[in-house]
Design a protein that fits this description.
The chain is an all-alpha fold and 131 residues long. The chain has six helices and no strands.
């Protein structure tokens, strides 16, 4: 079985499913908590992106300016590659760096959730179950 690759369209569709939004929020909260970075989610799926983006961006900006090693460890934990950041930055150079990284983190977390959902639906054990 080949693994799915998720396009921007797939991410847009997934961002409309309440179950995937809640699961993505939980994944973000979990990953940031491992670095003592608190993220809260009200549960309002309609404001999910704005609510989490603002909090995450503050943490990313702080880490970039004060705790570079912790920032790099967070990226590693979430599985956001520096080359992905550089590529995205070339595509949208007008976006501030901390916003760009925050957006990529949300996309990566959503992809993790989509991968788990894919394995649940196909009846296979997910290699990302504990990611």
């Amino acid at each position: 079985m080949s693994l799915p690759s998720f396009s921007e369209d797939d991410l847009r569709k997934a961002s409309k499913r309440e179950d995937l939004i809640r699961e993505t929020a939980a994944q973000i909260i979990k990953d940031f908590a491992e670095f003592d970075l608190s993220i809260g989610f009200s549960g309002n799926v309609h404001d999910f992106y704005q609510e989490l983006f603002g909090q995450m961006k503050q943490h990313v900006a702080y880490l970039l300016s004060e705790k570079t090693e912790k920032f790099l460890n967070l990226l590693y934990r979430i599985d956001v590659d520096i080359s992905d950041i550089e590529s995205y930055q070339m595509q949208v150079p007008e976006i501030p760096f901390d916003s760009l990284v925050t957006e990529l983190i949300i996309h990566r977390e959503l992809k993790k959730v989509l991968m788990r959902d894919f394995f649940r639906r196909t009846g296979n054990d997910s290699p990302l179950k504990n990611a």
